[in-house]
Every structure is written in structure tokens, then in C-alpha cells.
Design goal:
Strand order of the largest sheet: 5-4-13-14-15-12-16
Helix content: 25-40%
Oligomer: single chain
Radius of gyration: 21 Å
Structural class: alpha/beta
Length: 391
């Protein structure tokens, strides 16, 4: 690759910034085009499993992010009444997968990734359109802010409603509604102590986790029609749906102001794309394989995509070959977990809870086993990439 090779990244989220940082580390001239007026991310917090942390090692910030790990002691899966169905611990997870699970504010990760780029590399308020995907004989072309930019590589990191994806694969049906909506809050909850947990009810899920900065990250999900919103406000909606669940859920809801609560319907790409590239354009993250959040792997897979793409930037067919089978399998697993966790039938829920409790007792590592083949991923060329960044 010539030193003057140029990459344009469309989308300044976590996946796009990671790709930009990885490409910059390998000597590419990188421009990030973000349509929003700032890099302020959508969402409250992100969970990074050992697989994503190893990917961040490739760009030199893995250990820094690991230092933000907050989950200590026991955690696991509970019923709305508070009974533990499955227990696990940070130590067990680290031992099984070779590293910790880190939960941190999205803004913290975005700021750290942006700091890896040279001044002027990120342009905000810069909506971009793919004009031509290019091929081996000609560069790709991107229209942005009234000018046309040429690039040896364009990265479509523009999210679930990706316009880049639509330009590359116009016949693809795109994302579909997953059948449930989610809420997220990231707030201080003084005086409340609890073990990290996820709680499964009938057609409803709640999770509560502490962050190292003292705040609490909580998320909820419920089966609901697409587009439905609370008649008053979303904090009141959480109280109606989860206010009688076990502690500390009522206290977390009470501590939240209506403006603290984010609500988003969940969509995913049910039909895999035929490829994650076309011409000189590659897709990553939600633009390529949006999945339900039930495995917590959406952002993690975007980070993986980014470092793999930087490694295969001169051979996008190899990028597709490395990423398409893996992300398709993980997305399908996330859909299966969503169906199980969001089950509404009393009979199905009773069988589910009984089975989880019995299997967890017989095999204490049951909860962790579901991440085998996911959290233990390692970049096969990590040492090569680290060396490239030091040249």
C-alpha cells in the first residue's frame, strides 16, 4: 500500500472511529465524515467483552479501557421477584475468556478513539453520499458538503439505516423490527448497593450494572408495537412496567428524570448481506449486520470489524470472508436469545426459568458458556498490527 492511500469513513460512531484509528495506524490518510453536529454518541453505555478489548489492543488502547472495568463479585440472571436463576462472577469470566468485561459510558470510548486521530481528520455536520463505489481501475467517490472526494477505500459505518448499504445493495430488504423496544439510563443512584444482574420476566427484561465512575447503567426491554411511546413520559412507563420488580429496580427508576430515559425500538438485519463489500467500499457494524442487543455484541462486533478491515484494506474480499460468517452466526444467536428472554407465555416462561436454574446448578458456568466462540476471539494478526503501529 502506498503511503498516500486515502480512506473516507462515513459515520463517526464507535465502529467508524475504530476503523479510522486502525487505518491511520497503518499509514492511511483518513477522513471521517459524521452527519451529526458532534461526535456525541447515541446511547448511554457500552459493554466491551474480551474479544473487543483484544481488538482495541491492536490500536493501542486496550489496557487503558480495561482499567475502567467496574463489575466485581457475583452477578447473574434473576426473576422479577429477585430469585437468582444463574450466578457468575467477574473472576470466572476473566478466567474463561482471558480478560474482563468492561462497562463504560459511550462518550468515554468515543472521546478516546477520536483522540487517536490527527487534527482535522473528523468532520462533523458533514452528511455524505456514496456517488460511486469504484473498482480496481478507479477510486470510489463520495459527495459531501458540496464537494466530491475520491478515495482508495470508503468505509460505510453509518449505522442500521445505512445509506451506504442501500447504495451498494439496493435489492436487500434492510432492517426489520425485532418485536420489542428498549430503554436506557445512565445516572447516579446514591446509597444503593446491588450485584450486577439481568432480570427476565414475561416479555420484559431489565438489567442493572455499576460503572467505575459511581453511576449506574440500567436498561430495559419489552415486547411492544413498533413506534409506540408512553402517553406521558418514559420514566413513568418504566415505573408502570417494572416498578414492582425486585430491588434495586424501583430505586433506579425513582432516581431517573424523564429526560434521563432513552427509548429506541430494536431493529435488526434478519437476512444477511451477500457481502460486506463492493468495489472499494466496505461496510461494518450495524450497517453490515445489525443485531438485537441480547448478547451485548453489537458494538463489540463493530470494533472487531474495524481492525480486521484495516488489516485487509487492500483485499476487501478477504475482509468479507473473515467477517460475514462470524457476524451472521452471532446475529442469529442474538435473535435466539431474544426470543427466549422476551417470551410472553406463562408456560414457556415457567419452563425457561426452571431449565435455566437446573442447568445452572448442574453447570455453574452455564451463563458464560453462551459466550464461548464469541468472547474468546483473538485477532490472528494482533502482533503484526502492533508492530506496524510502531514503525
Amino acid at each position: 500500500m502506498a503511503q498516500s492511500a486515502r480512506a473516507i469513513v462515513i459515520g463517526g460512531g464507535i465502529g467508524g472511529l475504530t476503523a479510522a484509528a486502525a487505518l491511520h495506524r497503518r499509514g492511511w490518510e483518513v477522513t471521517v465524515l459524521e452527519r451529526a453536529g458532534s461526535l456525541e454518541p447515541v446511547g448511554a453505555a457500552i459493554s466491551l467483552a474480551p474479544n473487543a478489548l483484544r481488538a482495541l489492543d491492536v490500536i493501542g488502547i486496550g489496557d487503558e479501557i480495561r482499567d475502567l472495568a467496574a463489575w466485581q463479585g457475583d452477578g447473574g440472571l434473576r426473576t422479577p421477584g429477585g430469585r437468582w436463576l444463574s450466578r457468575s462472577s467477574a473472576d470466572a469470566a476473566a478466567a474463561r475468556f482471558g480478560g474482563p468485561l468492561v462497562l463504560l459510558p459511550r462518550t468515554t470510548l468515543v472521546d478516546r478513539l477520536a483522540a487517536l486521530l490527527p487534527p482535522g481528520a473528523v468532520r462533523t455536520a458533514a452528511a455524505a453520499t456514496l456517488a460511486d463505489p469504484g473498482d480496481r481501475a478507479r477510486p470510489a467517490r463520495v459527495a459531501a458538503a458540496g464537494e466530491e472526494l475520491k478515495a482508495d477505500l470508503v468505509v460505510g459505518a453509518d449505522g442500521i439505516n445505512s445509506r451506504v448499504r442501500n447504495a451498494l445493495f439496493p435489492a436487500h430488504p434492510g432492517p426489520v423490527y425485532a418485536g420489542f423496544t428498549t430503554w436506557r439510563v445512565l445516572i447516579p443512584v446514591p446509597g444503593v448497593e446491588f450485584a450486577s444482574h439481568e432480570t427476565w420476566g414475561r416479555g420484559r427484561i431489565w438489567g442493572t450494572h455499576p460503572l467505575k465512575d459511581g453511576r449506574v447503567y440500567a436498561y430495559a426491554a419489552a415486547v411492544a408495537p413498533a413506534g409506540e411511546r408512553a402517553p406521558d413520559d418514559e420514566q413513568a412507563e418504566l415505573l408502570r412496567r417494572f416498578g414492582n420488580w425486585h430491588d434495586p429496580i424501583p430505586a433506579v427508576i425513582a432516581a431517573a428524570r424523564p429526560e434521563d430515559v432513552l427509548r429506541h425500538d430494536v431493529h435488526h438485519i434478519a437476512q444477511p448481506l451477500p457481502a460486506h463489500h463492493l468495489g472499494r467500499v466496505a461496510l461494518l457494524g450495524d450497517a453490515a449486520h445489525a443485531m438485537p442487543p441480547t448478547l451485548g455484541q453489537g458494538g463489540n462486533q463493530a470494533v472487531e470489524d474495524a481492525v480486521v478491515l484495516a488489516h485487509h484494506a487492500d483485499d476487501l474480499a478477504a475482509y468479507t470472508a473473515a467477517r460475514l460468517p462470524r457476524t451472521t452466526a452471532i446475529a442469529r444467536q442474538a435473535v435466539k436469545v431474544a426470543r427466549l428472554g422476551m417470551a410472553e407465555s406463562r408456560a414457556v416462561v415457567a419452563v425457561r426459568d426452571t431449565a435455566v436454574a437446573a442447568l445452572s446448578k448442574a453447570r455453574p458456568a452455564l451463563f458464560l458458556r453462551s459466550f464461548d466462540g464469541i468472547a474468546d476471539w483473538r485477532p490472528p494478526y494482533a502482533s503484526e498490527e502492533a508492530h506496524a503501529g510502531k514503525r
